[in-house]
Specification:
mainly alpha; 434 Repressor (Amino-terminal Domain)
């Protein structure tokens, strides 16, 4: 659900992209029904995310690659500012170096 919202996608839009019912999306997000393997593949494609992340919550190479591509477009100054923001977030979360 978080990734769908991050993409500003409604349940209806996701259901259309996956060629499934909106009810199936709703039930899957609520944990009321398991998602079939063939629908998991469609979900990953629709959300541009790995099955590892959906199943385990751990990011894989696909997500890191997408972020790296975005980072490569930043200037050195922008990268420095972003690193400062990340450091602040880690400190707030109690996971700083």
């Amino acid at each position: 659900m978080m990734r769908r919202r991050q993409l500003r996608m409604t349940q209806e839009e996701l259901a259309d992209r996956m060629d499934v019912s909106t009810q199936m999306i709703s039930y899957a997000e609520q944990g009321r029904k398991a998602i079939r393997p063939e629908n998991l593949i469609k979900l990953c494609a629709a959300l541009d995310i790995s099955a590892d992340y959906i199943l385990t919550g751990k990011t894989g190479g696909q997500e890191c690659g997408r972020i790296a591509a975005k980072l490569s477009r930043l200037t050195p100054f922008q990268l420095q500012k972003l690193e400062t923001i990340i450091d602040c977030c880690l400190e707030l979360a109690g996971t700083s170096d």
